[in-house]
Amino acid sequence: VQLVESGGGSVQVGGSLRLSCTASAYTYRRYCLGWFRQAPGKERERVAVIGSDGSISFTDSVKGRFTISEDNAKNTLYLQMNSLKPEDTAMYYCAASLSWPACMRFGPGLYDYWGQGTQVTVSS
């Protein structure tokens, strides 16, 4: 599975961005698709994940501000980010895991495929 992210950029505090991740065609029936981020000097953290059963999980710091969605017809994953804060600044990665349902709960170690990342910068 190849993953290609787009949609990053620079915004001011309170602004919005929508990230997209287009995947090469796949036929897996049990999977997770997720967004992770990594800020300089910090570990990569899970931001939002959607499972093959439609279940969704968010890290606490983005709940109520970010939305994750999937367009199966386009093999595209989205991350809508609203009310952005400076602490959201990071490189954002799209990732896919075949270890469903465990991938709904655990971190990047369970993810098999990664995109190249797209930078999000939020300035005050």
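(the above was protein one; protein two follows)
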Amino acid sequence: EVQLVESGGAQVQPGESLRLSCVASGFSISAYVMSWFRQAPGEGRKIVAFISPSGARVYPDSVKGRFTISIDNAENTLDLQMNSLKPEDTGTYYCARRRYNASTLSPRDHDYWGQGTQVTVSS
């Protein structure tokens, strides 16, 4: 059974850092495109990072230079290091697996999701 379980969310002040983790089971995350999405209150899910099986990483401009996505193959874990956090980074963060034959990064092209972990950035 495929499962994704996130952890690491917390309430922090602007400028602080957090590290989110997503433990995968039932498949090898290194064989898939894996993504982190953020959902702010009242909004849809937006991608904040993805990593391909080749190790390519892509970030939207809003988080580029502050967020880093990585994989721990030994633990089958997907991580997201978030530095210099801003209030606009607030939301529920989800890790997700993209469908094997998909070609976009739309939420619709991701077939398994974690339950989400809440990040709140506020002074």
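Reviewer note on protein two: The radius of gyration is 13 Å.
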